[in-house]
Write a structure and sequence with these properties.
Oligomer: single chain
CATH architecture of the largest domain: Beta Barrel
GO molecular function, one term: aspartic-type endopeptidase activity
Strand content: 25-35%
Protein name: POK9 protein
Helix content: under 10%
Organism: Daphoenositta chrysoptera
CATH topology of the largest domain: Cathepsin D, subunit A, domain 1
GO biological process, one term: proteolysis
Pfam families: dUTPase, RVP
Structural class: mainly beta
Largest sheet: 8 strands, mixed
Length: 182
């Protein structure tokens, strides 16, 4: 949704909340049109790690309040179970298979240089990739066909160094086109 200029505010819901789950969203550049049924947010249920903590209120919340009643909230992800898929890349009759990390937090898809086929061309780019490690000037691929779970689309990848265990990162540019929901 952020590609449309609509930002979903992350939040935490107490484990005993039983009402309708809503989202908070904003846009710095109104108006933004959202089609009925369009996916703009994703609920990520995480294990409750605070079962041993005494509740602030003695009664269950049921449908009486939305949000989190606690003070400090920490969201955690087990990085060893991040979603990975085998993908196929096709370019001028040639095929390569990579293991890709699916990442809804990344706007663009990336292939690490060590997994880029040496006989496939690279193009200079003025695009930058910004991440935890800072900002990097990226090369870009020619238009490739990418296949994930028998769904295909055409896309240009950025070629940038990734962590050693990651061959390829599939971002929202591909996930949205293929309708992949994590």
């Amino acid at each position: 949704a952020s590609m449309m200029g609509l930002f979903i505010l992350p939040s935490v819901i107490d484990a005993d909340y039983m009402g309708e789950i809503m989202i908070m969203a904003y846009t710095p550049f109104p108006p933004v049109k959202v089609q009925k049924g369009q996916r703009i947010a994703q609920l990520v249920p995480l294990p409750q790690l605070s079962r041993s903590v005494t509740p602030l209120l003695p009664q269950e919340r049921e449908q009486k309040g939305f949000g989190s009643t606690g003070g400090l909230t920490l969201l955690t992800l087990d990085l060893t179970t991040r979603p990975k898929k085998q993908i196929q890349l096709h370019y001028q009759g040639q095929k390569r298979t990579l293991t890709a990390l699916l990442d809804t937090g990344a706007e663009t898809s990336i292939i690490t240089p060590s997994n880029w086929p040496r006989d496939w061309p690279l193009q200079a780019s003025t695009a930058t990739i910004t991440g935890v490690g800072g900002m990097t000037l990226a090369h870009k691929s020619p238009l490739l066909t990418v296949i994930i779970e028998n769904k295909s689309t055409q896309v240009v990848f950025s070629i940038v160094q990734l962590p050693p265990t990651v061959q390829c990162l599939i971002g929202r540019d591909i996930l949205a086109q293929l309708g992949v929901v994590l």
